[in-house]
Amino acid sequence: MCTAFTSLAALSRDDDTRWRMLASQRPTSAALVDLVWVRSWLEAFAPVEPVLLATRDDGRLVGLAVLQRLVESHGRPVRVLQSLTNDESFRFDFLSPEGRSDILEQMWHVLCATPRWDVIRLQHLPEGSPTLSAALTVARERGWRALVRETFLTPWRPLYPPASWDEGLTRKFKSNLRRRERRLGELGAVRCDIARGGRPLERALEAFYQLEARGWKGQSGSAVAQRPQVKRFYDRLVERAAADGGIWIPMLTLSDSPIAAQVLRVSGRTMFGLKTAYDEAYARYGPGQVLTSRVIRYGLDHGMEALDLMAGNATYKADWARRFRPHYELLLFAPSLAGRCAYWVRYGMREQVKKLPGAVRLARWLRIRRRGQ
Prior knowledge:
Layout: E1 2-6, H1 13-24, H2 30-33, H3 35-45, E2 50-57, E3 60-73, E4 77-83, H4 101-113, E5 119-126, H5 130-142, E6 145-158, H6 171-187, E7 190-195, H7 198-213, H8 216-220, H9 228-241, E8 247-254, E9 257-267, E10 270-278, H10 287-301, E11 306-308, H11 315-318, E12 323-333, H12 337-354, H13 359-372
Parallel strand pairs: 4-5, 10-11
Antiparallel strand pairs: 1-2, 2-3, 3-4, 5-12, 6-11, 6-12, 7-8, 8-9, 9-10
Helix pairs in contact: 3-9, 4-5, 6-10
């Protein structure tokens, strides 16, 4: 078994096929680490120095990690190897066959033995990630300091037939949904269409962009259509994923006018919620929640087993959740002068203070006092 750095251009068609297979071994992360996602992300955001690490067994691809190398300044330049994550990519993992911790540990040994970075930072590793456990094992062996911090607490909803679409929802929430649907129906004909490919998908994506830009995101300049790199990413993602039905765009219309839309990444039997937009003129009717209820019913009818609402635990997501998935940031600091300095300058003092008796209570008391002033 051999692990070495490579590039996307050096991968063969067989490697691409193996990449897809390896991604399927990470069902909670596959949608954000598969070939379609990574190629779209790299083309759109163009990191200065992408880093691809591959493990092969008898020539066959059995392990893969795609990262990026950055240089940051914390009083002095710090060389960072980071996951392929940003505001549009909120889950990450290394790829390997199920149960092959030896492959992941070999990959980590290669990363930790490479003197090109002072810090390794992986963001948004899902709970239970074998990437995280392998990293901690190798870090202890090689003397790297490890720091693990929680990032997202992500709501998700299993859809196991023959469960009813509203199973587990509170009585109040179900009552509000029924009332909102009824009141929308009094304004005109309400319909939900789900575009899954071809021209309907292209039109639905454009309608989503327009709907989002008319709301508060458009006013703040943060709508997808106003950020060229982000728009390029979603354009590329939809173009690539449409071929195998990997993108769905549900649209709620009122008298044929869009009032809510979502962008879903579909992988295996899971729907991953990437983006939501709604017409704020209809905010009192909760069009986004009405649309989610239709998506869940559609998913059940089409064999889906989960709706993963991705990223943070916002109220409009948590209302649907039956479970929550914690995510973690892993920081590894090299056993070198630069690595130790990077730890102490930014994290060390804070982490050590937390260990002092009463430190957490004191920090909480100080925050309360500041708010009251």
